[in-house]
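USER:
Make up one protein:

ASSISTANT:
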Amino acid sequence: MADNCCESACGNETAKADPRWRRVLWVALIVNAAMFFVEMVAGAAADSRALQADALDFLGDAANYALSLAVVGAALTWRARAALLKSLFMIGFAAWVFGSAILAFVNGTAPDPATMGAVGALALTANVGVALLLYRYRMGDANMRSVWLCSRNDAIGNVAVMLAALGVLGTGSAWPDLIVASIMAGLALTGGLQVFRQAVAELRTVAL
């Protein structure tokens, strides 16, 4: 527990002393907000649940980055509370994607693989760039860790969308799209639970 306390405190001091952390968050916020609109329009046009799920993930991440900006340099209690709220966003996103995949299985048709592949590649470029900017902060407190996990999961999800596009192209079926949407939901759920546990642990530390 002592190591965790030190890690959280160090994370806060890093955020206070390093103005690059705030600039990185602003870049991540702008990139994610822009990609939400791009992927939502493309997902609707291509009838791709994986693209639509990724678009909502971009929206959730933009909200997460905005929340992180609001608590930069704040006390550990507030940063842990922000991380706790973000973990609930991630878990809620996972639930939405699972539900969307089930509905698409019942009613959906095969999406357009060309649009999926092109937009997936654009999203991957955006997320890899943001992930590289955030990499140095991946071992900070729960709030900083949640930002890193969101970006990492997004990059993995973009690769999966591109693989789904190849699968749809090869099979003419919606199954690859639905499978990838479910994988993305699993990543969001896993990351959300990790952040939730760390945030709860930090809140308990402050209470002692």
